[in-house]
Amino acid sequence: MPTKESDDVKVRLGGRFYRLFGATLVSAVGTGMHAAALPLLALQSTSSPMALSFVVMAAEIPWVLLSLHAGVVVDRLDRRRVMVWADLGRFGVLVVLASLIVTARVNLVWLVLAAFLLGVGQVFFDLAAQSAIPDFVSRDPRTLATANGRIVAAESNGEDFVGPPVGSALFGVWNVLPFAGNALSFVASGLLILSIRTDAKPEEKSEAPRQSVRSDIAEGVRWLFRNRTLRALATVSCLGNVAVTAQFAMLALLAKEVLGLPDFGFGLLLTATAVGATFGGLAAAAASKRFGPGTVMLAGKAGVGAAILVLGLVANSWVAAAMMMATGALMTAEKVVVSTLRQQIVPGELLGRVLSSSRLVVMIGGPIGAALGGVLASVFAVQVSYVAAGAFLLVVALAFYPVLNNRALARAADGAAG
C-alpha cells in the first residue's frame, strides 16, 4: 500500500517530469535498437573483426570529443531544445541510412559515419536530459534522487533491455526495420519534449554572468586531477571500460561464430546484461553498507574480469548468458558506488563539471578497447580478445586495491566532510 511519503514524491515529480521520463525511455529504446542492429548490418557486409570494431569505436568517440563542450552547451541553452535538436538530427541520420539500405548502397564507411552521428546526438540528448531534471521537479533531495533514479532506469532498460532484442528481432525480419523504427522513436521523443512547458525565461538565462567556456572546463578538470581518490576512480573506470568495450565490440561476432546464435540470440545476450543491471542497481546500496564501497567496487571489477574470461573459454550459450548477466549486475553496482563516492567528495558547486571531466576520462577507454578487441580477434581469434580483456581486468582490480580499499575510501570521504 503506498505511503503518504511515496504519494508526496509522485506529486512533486509531476506531469512535466513524466513527459521527460517518457521521452528518455522512447529515445533509449531507439538507441538500443540501432546499437544491436548496426553490428549485425556490418556483419552482412564483412566478417572482419576490425570492421566491427570501427562501428563500435565510431559510436563511442563522440563522448571523448564532445562531452565537455556539450555540457557547456546544455547549461547555456534551453535544454528542451537541445534534446529536440538531438532527436531531429538522429531522425535525419536514420532516414538517410534506411534509404541506403533499401537501395543496397550501404557500406562500411556509411555505417561508421552513421554510428558517429548517432553517438553525437546521444551525447547531447543524455546530458540535456540529466541536466533538465531540476528544471521540472522540486529541488528536495529525495525528489531529485527519485527522479534521477527513474531517468537512469529509463536509459538502462531502453538501451539494454527492450531496444536490443527488438532491434535484432526486426533485423531478422528485414534489415531496414530496426532503423525505421528507431527513426520513429526519435520523432515520438521530440514531440513529448516539445509538449513540456517550462517557467524558465530565456532572457534570465542569457543575462547570468558567465566565465569563458575554457575556464569552466579547466576548473572541473583541475579539481578532478588534484584529488588522489577521484583520479583513481576515474582511472580504474577508464581501464575497466577498455576491457568491457572490447567485450561488447566483439559480442556479435562471438554470438555468431562461436556460440552459433541467430540474430535474435545476440539481442538476448544484451538483454541478459540489462537483467543483471537491474538486480545490481537494487542490491548496490545494501552491498556497500554490508561489505564497504571499496570491496563492492574492486570485487565487482574482478568479477567482471572473471566473467569476460569465461566468455573466452566456454562456448556455451547458457554460460554466456549467465556471464553477461553477471557483467551487468557487477558493472551497475560499481557505477552506483562510484557515483556516491564522487558526490561525497566533490563540492556541490563543482559536481557537474567534475562529473563531466570524469566521464570524459572513462569514455577514452571505449575506443581503445574496441580497437584492441578488433586487433586481437583479427590476428588470433575472437576468444583471445575475451581472455586478454578478462585477465587485464583482474590485474587492474589488484593494482588499485591500495588506493581504493574500504579504509582508503573512508579516509577520503571523512576528509571531504571535514
Automatic annotation (TrEMBL):
User: Which CDD domains does the UniProt record give?
Assistant: MFS_MefA_like (cd06173)
Top-level lineage group = Bacteria
UniProt membrane topology term:
Multi-pass membrane protein
Domain Major facilitator superfamily (MFS) profile residues, every copy: 16-408
Query: Which InterPro entries does this chain map to?
Result: MFS_dom (IPR020846), MFS_trans_sf (IPR036259), TM_effector (IPR010290)
- Pfam families hit by this protein: MFS_3 (PF05977)
Q: Name one GO molecular function term.
A: transmembrane transporter activity
Q: What are the record keywords, sorted?
A: Cell membrane, Membrane, Transmembrane, Transmembrane helix, Transport
* This protein's GO CC annotations: plasma membrane
Tell me where in or outside the cell this protein is found: Cell membrane
Indicate the transmembrane segments per the record. 20-43, 49-70, 232-254, 266-287, 294-312, 359-380, 386-404
Under the heading PROSITE patterns, the entry gives: MFS
Name-wise, this protein is MFS transporter
Q: Which organism is it from?
A: Umezawaea endophytica
